[in-house]
Amino acid sequence: MSRARSRIPLVRLAARNALRHTRRSALTAVAIAVAVTALVFFQSYIRGVVDDLLDTYARTESGHVRIRREGYAAREHFLPAHLNLRDVTELVSEVARDPEVRDVVPRIRAFVLVDGAASNRPGLVLGVDLAREADYLRPEGMVAAGRLPAPDRAEALVGERFAEKLAVGVGDSLTLLSQTAYRSLGGLRVEVAGIARTGVSYLDASLVVLPLGQAQVLLDLEGGATELVVFAREPEGADSLAAAIGARLGDRMGPLEIRSWREQGPLVRLTDLIGVMIGIVMLLLFGMASLVIVNTMLMTVLERKREYATQAALGMRRGDLVRQVVVEAAVIGLAGALAGAVAGSAVALWLERVGLDFTSASRTLELPFESIVHPDWKLRYAVGMALAGAAVAGIAAVVPAWRVARQPPAEALRG
Amino acid sequence: MSAEARAGRLGFFTLGRLAWRNLRRNRRRTWITAVTVAVAVLLMQFAMALMMGVERQSFDNLINYQTGHAKVFANGYYAAREDLPLDRGIAAAETLQVRLRAVPGVQATAARLTFQAQLSNGSDQLPCVGIGIDVGGSDTDVFRIPQAVTDGAYLEPDRLGMLIGGGLAEVLGVGLGDWLTVLAKTLNGAFEAVDLEVVGVLGTGNPAIDRGTFLVPLALAQTMLAMPGAATEIAVRFRPAAREGATLGRLRAAAAESGLDARGWREIEFDFLALVSAKRTGRTVALVVFLTVALVGVTNTILMAAFERTREIGMLMALGLRGSGVRRLFLAEGALLGLLGGAVGTLVGAVLIAWLAVSGLDIASVYGDLDIGYPVQDRIYTAFDAGALLFGWLLAVALAALASLYPAARASRLDPVEALRHV
Amino acid sequence: MTNAARRLRRSAAAAGLALLTPIGVVAQTPAEILRSVDANMTISTAWVRAEMVIRYRGGDVRTLRYESWARGTDEAFIEFTAPARDAGSRFLRRDEAMWIFLPRVGKSVRIQGHMLRQGMMGSDISYGDASERPSMVDDYDATLVRRDTLDGRPVWVLLLVARHADLSYPRRRLWVDAERNVPLREERFTASGRLLKTAVLGDVRRVGNRWYPFRMELDNALDTETTTTLNILELRLGVSVPPEVFTLRYLEGGR
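^ Those are the sequences you sent over. The predicted structure of the assembly is below.
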C-alpha cells in the first residue's frame, strides 16, 4: 500500500490521545512531575549551600577583591604588620569611585600575645570597623555573651575558648602585645566587652576582635590597615573589577597586590571540591528520577500494545507508529516536567524566603557556616530539568515503542 | 461467620502463593516494578554508603593519623596538653606498654613523644609541633602514617629524616630532599637542634597535622630532648571486633593502676565530633528527596499495573474474593515485589559498595589548603555496613507495601461487574 | 647553690679580681681565663647609654636608643628613649624573671611562655636570652682549643661545656683577647654542636682598670631576617644605683 508522505499532525494527535486516556496520562505525568520537582528543588538547595559557603568565605576572608601591600601574600602566614596600607581613607574613597564597587572595608589582621593565666598566649587580632561590617563580617552574630566593643573604646570581643583559657570574662581586662607596623613592640590594654562564638574551632580559641581604631593604635598603624576588602555589585565580575581597580590606582598608592577572590587559592578548590561531591549525589538523584520516568513510559507503552497493534493493522507504518508514540511520550513528559518544574520552583522559592534552619549544623573547621540555608532558585534549573525530564520521557519511550511496532499486529492483538 | 465471608478471606500462605502466582503470570509488569524497586534500592544504598563512608573516613582519618582509639597520658598531662609539657611525660614507656597490651580488646600500643619545636629553613623560623614516632617499632601497628605520605617515603628507623605536613612544607618552601633545622628545648631547658632531611611529605587531610606538625623517629626525639625511654603519650588501637566502650573502660582501669590517665578518641576530639553530627542534618535533606522520588515511582508503577488488571480483579471478585482480600493480595504482591526487587538491589549494591570500599572513588586532587570540615583525601570510600544494607532491604519491602496501599484500596472498591466489563 | 649565694660569690670574686688582676697578666688555665673574662664582663653596678641597630634582610634599618641600670648579672633595668614611638618602653629583669612595661599598656606584664622566644623590640636578643646570664666560670667547664689571631689581636679559643643540664646553650666557643681577657667572639651551640647564635664584640676600650667591648653584634643562625648591633655610647661603672630601680613600681613609672 503506498501512501503519500503524510503530514500527520503528530503533536495534535498525541495531545488528543493523551487527553483521551486521562487517567493513564495523568499518572505518567504525575510521576514525571514528582521526579522533576525533586531535581529542581535539590539543585536549588545545593546551590544554596554552595552559595552560602562562598558567600561566607567572601564576607569573612577574601571579599570579592582584596587589596594588600605587595609582598604580603608571600609572607601571609606570618601576618607581617609592616607590610601595610597607609592612608586607608583615601584609598577607600578612590576604590569606591568605581561604579562596580558595592562597598570597601579596611581590616587589620595581626598576631598578638595575650597576657593571662600565667602565660603569654598567642592570639589573632581582627581589627574592623564594627559599624560598617554589619553586612559583611557580621560581628553582631558572633556575640555569645556581653556586647560588641564600642568603636572608640579600648574594648575587645574575645573568642569563647580563648577567654576560657585566659580565665577572663566580660568586664575583665587583657593586655595585648604585638609587633607593630614598625617591627617594634606595641601593646594595648583592653576590656573584654563580649565573648564571641564563631563556630570555627581555631578562631574561638584565638580570636580577639578590636575596633579598627584600637587595632591601629596597637600596631602603631595610624590611619592604616593590613588589607582592604572590596565587595562587588556583581560577584561574577570580580576579575575585571580587580583589573579596573588596579588601573585606577596605578602607582599612586604605592606597590599593591589586588587579587580577585578567584585568584585567592583555596576558594576555587573549595568550590571544585563541593561540586564534585554534589555532582555525585545529583547524578544518583537524576538516575533515580530517570528510572521513574523510564519505567512509567515503559508501562504506558506496553500497556497500549493492543491499541498500537490495531493502528499497525490499519496500515500505520512502523516508523510513523514509533514517532507517534515517542511524540506522545514527549508531550506527556513535557507536561509533567513543566508541572514538576513549577512545583519544584515553588518549593525552592518558598524555602529561599523562609530558609532551612540548620542551627545545630553551624560549625566547620575553617569557615563559619550560616546556620540558615536558603536554597538559591535559578530559572535555568527549572528550564533545564523540565527539558531533561521531557527528553528522558521521550527517549524512554523509543525502545518499547520499537518493540511493539516490530511485533506482528496479529500477535500483539492476541496478547 | 457466613460461608461467603469465610471464602472471601485468605489465609497467610494462600495469600502468599496467590500473590506469587499473580506476579509470575504477568512477567512484564512484575519485572518492570521489581526492577524499579531494585534500582531505587541500589541507588539509595549507594548514596547512603557513600555518605557513611565519607563520615567514617574522617573518623578513621583521625584514628589512623592522630589519636588511635585512645591515648594514655601521665597524670596532669591532659589538662596542660596544649602547652605540651615535657615534664609531665611517661618515664618508662616500654614496660607500661606491655601492661597495656594485656588488656583484653587492645590490639596494639605505640609510644609517642610530642614536643614544641621551631623549624628553620635557614632564613625563617616557624613554631610548630614535632612528634617522635616509633619507626620500625609499633607505630605502624597503631597508626597508618605510611598511607598518608603523599610524596617521598615513610621514615626508616636508622636513617635521620623527617616527615613534614604538606602545609608546613609549603610555608617553609621546602620539598623532598631539602634540609630543615629542628630547634627545641630539652626536658631541662637547654636548646638542642638537629638538621634533618625531608624524606616524606604528609597529606592526611587534617589541617592540624598537615599545617603544623612534623614527624621524626622516636629515638631521635628522645635523644634530642634528653628523655631516654620516655614518651608523652601511649596511643592504643583496639581490636576491630572489640566494643569500644567496654575496652576503653578496661583500659582506663589498667592505666589508673599504673598511675596513668587514659582518654578515648571521642573525648579527645570532642569538637570534631560535634561538627560531624551537625553535618548529618544536611544529609537528611538528600535522603528525604531520594525517598520521595522512589516512593512515588514505585507507587506509580504499581498503580498502573493495578489499572491494567481491572478485569482480572473483577474475575477474582467474581470468584469470591472480597474487598479486604483484594487489598491484602495487593499488599502481599507489593511486599513480595519489595522483597525481590530489594534483594536484587541490595545484592548488586552490596557488591558495588564492597568494591568501592576497598578501591575507593578517585576525586582527583581538588584538595589544597582549605578543608571543608572533613579530613578526607583524594579517594573517598563507601562504608560497607551489613546492618545498613539489611535495613535498606527491609525498608524496600515496607515501602513497596506502602506503595501498594493506594492501588490496593482502589482495587478493593471496584464493582466486580463493572470490572469484568473493562477492556 | 642558690641564686643569691651565687650572686654574692660572683660579685665578691669579681670585686676581688678587679682589684688584684693587673693589666697584661697571662692567665694560665682555661678556668682562670674564664674567670678573668667573667671579671671583666661582670660589673657590680653600671649605667649604660646605648644604641641598638637592627638591620633587616630587605635593607631596612632601625635604630633605637636606650639607657639601662644594671647590678651584677642578676638585675637590670632598661628604658628605651628613642625613637619617639619606642620611647618609654621599659624592661625589668630580676634573676630569671623579666617584665615589660609599655606606656600605652600602663601595666607591667611578665614575660613568659611564648614571648620568651621573641626578640627584644624585634631584635636578635631574645627575652629568654636576656633573662639568662650565666656565669661562665661557674656554669661551664672550659678547655683551650688553640691560640689564634682575630682582627689582629692574639686570642685564646676556648670550648665551654655546660656543667648542668638546664642551661639554654650547652656549648659555647669563646675567642678571648689574650692580652685583655675580653671576649671578641662567642658562638653558642646545642649539645650536638649545632650553631645557634653568634656574637661579635669589638671597639674594646679601657674603662677603669678593665677592658670592655663597646660594640656587640648578634646574629641568630637559624633566623637570618635580622642582625642586631649594640653600640655603647656612654658607660659608667661602679655607680650607685638607687635601690628602688629594680622594682615593679619603678618599672611602672612610680618615680
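The helical segments of chain C are 3-20, 30-41, 127-130, 136-139, 248-251. Chain C touches chain B at residues 57, 113-114, 117, 162, 164-170, 190-192, 194, 196, 220, 222-225 (CB under 8 Å).

Shout if you want it in another format.
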